[in-house]
Structure formats: structure tokens, C-alpha cells
Protein 1
Amino acid sequence: MKRIIAVILSLVLLFSLPLNVGAVRVATEYVGADLESPLEENVQASAKVGERLDINAKSAVLMEYNTGKVLYEQDADQKLAPASITKVMTLILVMEALEEGKIKLDTKVTASEHAASLGGSQIWLEPGEVMTIDELLKATVIASANDATVALAEAVSGSEEAFVQKMNEKAQALGLKNTNFINSYGLDADGHYTTAYDIAVMSAELIKHKLIREYSTIKIDSLRGGESELVNTNKLIRYYDGCFGLKTGTTGKAGSCLTATAERDGLTLIAVVLGSPTSKDRFSGAQKLLDYGFANYTFVDVKADTSEFTALPVKKGVTKSVMPIAEEGLPLLLKKGEEGGITQSYSFEENLTAPIKKGDIIGYVTVCLNGEEVGVIPIKAASSVDKLTYFICLGRLFKGLFTL
């Protein structure tokens, strides 16, 4: 009896994400027991820079978002099937179309025969069924619905073929040399491939669009008045501190894949895992990458020390000086503990001569880390200084005469 009760409780836990309740159909790419299993804490936090991580995957990469620097890699340029991580590029183009005003979130889209015919993960679109861009985005991002993805592609470009061409053009524009798309949704196809590194670049491009976070952080939602339930299969948004996305993928050829984004204390990381044998392995691999990154690196925005700045003399100007300012920051990715090695020095242009426009660069703050230059911060003119002309001098002379 105890064993029977234990089995029943296990099944309740396994299906605590509502898979089939009455007429409700759950649209999701993958549901397994591991989705509800808590993550181990700081599984790779003790690993130091340069040490190998135990990642059960064909390929993996960890990238810092702001600088694009690769912090860890494992066969990062190996061409592999990406499964539904393909949709990262699809979503980039949809976000761009939204921002350019080509489509709006409330734009209504009528499902085509082609979109409705897609298998795999889906929301069971019927030919002629109408949904908004917002609803299709939910289905694509949360549940990785292939039919919704194609409907979006057709809404943006008129046909999936034209949209896929744009995907490949965008890949080239991003400098992705090992990526080629055959479809917009990610089912296995000859010639459809990318790499962990290229996916990290794509992911960095996608999260520039703040709107994507509103969709990628949704755990559960629904469509059609609750008849279709959407379950996010990215376990990390439930259990990993700071995770805000991004996309899972699973096919027979690709295995279990994941691109995960997380942010802590200004440090934003992108972890990509391709070709894991199980879903648990992909989450574990991404967690190890993220733990490694947060344990070993920090992101700082260095501000110029302007405490010693004084007004600079200006030749041939209507005013004799201009105040220098240095308001921009210098973003730096550092290994933890390196912050104390940052030093600054500054230099100004000699013989400043009018005219000078507000914002003109008149010097630089040089930032060094342990004695080596790592960047500069421009010093700019805080105000404009017009050139002193004959007529201005004459006007000043007359003004002086009449005030005597």
C-alpha cells in the first residue's frame, strides 16, 4: 500500500504542470520530471578560470553579454542541429518588425494551410484561425509552437521561404559564419545547422529587445480562453536566480539544447548547451556555465575621476576658458578581485582654440588595469566657445565706452 501511495504521489508531482485536464491541451516542447526538480546550488562555483567543467554535451559556450567575450567554450564552433533554438533568430526578426512598425502586438494573423500543417510542438492552429501577434509570440516563446512560429514568419515576410532568406541574411550581418537555416522553427532538416558560439551571438542580439523578457519569463499561460495551455520548458526561469530566458530545443538529431540568459549585479551571461543526451544534462550544463561565470567574473562601469578637473584656457574665444567633463563610463569585464588594479590618468589637448562646440572631445581619461591600458573615456567640452571676431571686439569696445 505504501508503494502504491508513493507511486501516486510521484505521478501527481510529475504532472503538476497541467498536461491534460478535460478539454485543455498543453502546448509545450518537452515535459519531464526534471522540470520540477530543484537545481543543485552553485554546482560549479568552486571552479577557477581555466579549469574544465563537467558538461555532458557536444558543444557549449559561455559569453558575457556587454562585451561579447567568451568566458568558457567546449567545441563552440562545431556545426550542429539547433532544434527549436532556431527560433531565437526568428524572434530577432519579429522584434525588429515590431519596432519598425511593420506589425503590432494586436495585429491579427490568419493561419495558413502551411502553418497549420506543422508537426512537433504546436498549438494546433486550424487553417483560417485568427490570432494576434501577441498570442503567437506567447506560443512561440513559451511553448515553442512550430505552427505559431510559421504564422509569425508569414506575417512578417509574406511567406516562410522569404522569411528564412531574411534569417540567413541577418546571420551574415551578425558575422555568423557557421550558420544556415532551412526553416524558421527548427525541426531537423539537411543543411539546417549552427554552432554554440553563433547561438550565443544570436541570443545577445535578441535580448537587446527588452520586450522579449516579457515573454521568456512567463512560466504558464493559456490561449483560446484557457483551452490551450502554454508551459515554459526552461526550468531555469523557475529555479535559477537571475535567469530571464531564453530558449530550449529538442529533436532526435539535435538532442537536448538550451540557450540560457541570466543577470546578477550588472553581469549578464549567456550559456549555450547543444547536443546533451537528456534534458537534465542540458539544464545541468547551463547551470554549471552560469555558476562558473558568476563566481569568477564581475562587470564594472568605470566612471572618470573628474575631481581635479579645472577650466582649460581657450585661445581666440569669446570666453577665455571651457570646463572639461567626462560623463561616459567605460564598461569592463573583470575577473573578481581585479577591481583594485584599476588606475586612471588624463590628458587634454594643448592650445585649445575657438571655435569649440559643446560636446567636442578635448582630451581623454586613460584607464589601466595593473598597469596595462584597457580603454579610454573621452573628455568633452561642457559648453560652446565661439571664435572672437573683429565685430565682437568692436561691439565690446563700444559697450565699454558707453558704460564709462
Note: The chain has eleven helices and 19 strands.
Protein 2
Amino acid sequence: MNDKNKKRRLSLLNIIEAAAAVVIIIIVVFFAGVLKDRSGVSLSEPVTVEIPSGTGAAAAADILHESGVIKHPFVFRLESKINGYDSSYQPGSITVTDGMSYEDILNEIVKTNRDTITVSIPEGYEAKQIAQTLADAGVVSYDDFMAALDPSLYNYRFLSDIPADRPVKLEGYLFPTTYSIPRGYSAVEIVNMMLSVFDSVFTDEMYARAEEVNITVDEAVIMASIVERETSSDSERAKVAGVFYNRINSGMNLQSCATVQYILGERKPVLSIADTQIDSPYNTYKYPGLPVGPISNPGEECLKAALYPEKTDAFYFCLSKSGEHIFSKTYEEHLAAMDSNDLVMSVEQNGEAQ
């Protein structure tokens, strides 16, 4: 072998050795980070995480990761399995503080004797209904909860779209589910629990989808809140959203009875003409486009419906005798559908609602 080939071979060996050294360093650094996080998470402040009923190791690891608590969900799942925690997860909230190890967190999740109060928040509840439910359960006062609905108190990216002049600023983001609330929790801590669950439900894919269809997260939540109040059927929600988008895109007013009911503070089955003329930014009979804010706190299915509406040529819908909605393309078809089902007009003397 001549000198030139020897030098070339030595150069190649040097490159391989250098590359191998870099790979080893990367592996060492990675595993050092894994071990560090596993031994004690790094948090600037305590984080409260809600573990829904039926949650397994994979879902819990994802929730903890998306909440910024753990950095390595696979390692968390592995530790859970190896140490026999998988079948012992308990629903409810846990509070993770700086320095807690993965094992410490798992021990909190499997505790069966947490001193908590369980409160169920139905899908479609308004903030004031949630406040009253919590007050009735002895968790926190109505006024304290309503006062805690201030976005400046919380740090979530979905709050950036909320206008400063919205009447009930966090309406729509108080995710409806069953909560196990530790006794003594403040209103701010409880609201943060609800926002934390919303944050885990509203995935990166949903953010990307909102951008894809050119709407803000807030607009998606507003639409979802309307769909939540207009139908309770999972199979119809995407189509109802499609109808409302059709109206907006064609220049029609949204004309959602649910938005007027939100103004009235009651669920009137039949609105009067005077009701539809109320001067409010929530009145979708009087003002075009979406209302100024959400009218309820929607569940996951309605959020998905708002982001993935069904393509339809329908512009109207009404409730049939069977409890399902009838969708119509024209106003004449809509009137015929209502007449065939002996339905009362949604608005007295004016069937243009829905």
C-alpha cells in the first residue's frame, strides 16, 4: 500500500472515529437527559393534571407530556409497566411539583384516598352553570369562580386569540368532563385544571387544521359551542357545522336560536320576533358571522365537527318527530319538512331560523 492510500485510509478511519465519538456523545447526553427527567422533573411552578376515568398508561403519559410535566412519555410508560402500575390508575387531578420523579408521579396517580370532591360538568354547560354546579357541591363560591375567568391568570397558547372586551372571556374553554377536585383548591386552580384538560384535548393536529381551513382556534371554539347547543347527536354534529359554514360563506346570517337563548339566559323553545331583534353581539339573527364569543363549553366531538365539518348542500335543519334532524337545501324544503312533522316554527311567525 503506497503512502497516498495509507493517508486516505487513515483519513477515513479518523472520520469514522470522529463520527462514532459524536454518536456516543449524543447517546450519552440523551440518556443523561432521560435519567435526569426520570429522577426529578424540572418545573418552574406546580402543574395540576387531570387524569380522566379509564385512562391508561399511554394516555396518561401523553397528558403529562403535553402538559409539560414529563419529557419522555415512552420511559414513563415503561416505568409504569415494569413496576406494575398499569392496572391501578385512578381518575382525578394530581399536582406535580418540581423535582418529583416518575415514580413519585405514578404513586400520585394510583392513590385511591385523595381528599377530593368529584364534580361532573356536562357538555354544553355555560360558565355560569359550571360556577353554580361547583358552588352547589361546596367546592368554591359562584362569584370566586366567575372572577377567576381572567385569561391573564393563565399561560396557554389557545388564549392568545381571545378579545380583551369579551364579556365572559373563558367561556368555551372550560372543558366539560368529570373532575376530582382537591379540597381547598382555589377558583384559579380549578379553572386551570379545566384549561389544562382543554389543552390536552386540543391537539397539535387541531391547531394545524384550524390554520389549514383559515380560522382561528377561537373561531373554531365559537362554532363548536353553537353546534353543541344545536344538537346532541354525535352523528349530526359535523353536518350541523357544515350548514352553519354554508350560511356564513353564502353571506346569510347564522340565525342560530341557541345564540339568542344564550342572551336570554333561558332555553325558550320558541323565540319571538322581539327576541331575534335584541341588540347584542351574540345575536346571530341581527349580526352576520359568528357571535362575539362561545355560547357554551363544547366537548371534543363538537370541536372536531367545527374543524372537520361535513360537506353538504343543506342550509336548513329542523328536528323531526323521531328526534333526528331533517336537513334541507332550500327554505321551501325546510318549510315542507317542518309542516310534515307538525313542528312549531322556531321563531314565531317566521320559519327562517335553523
Note: Strands lie at 47-51, 92-96, 116-120, 178-182, 316-319, 325-328.
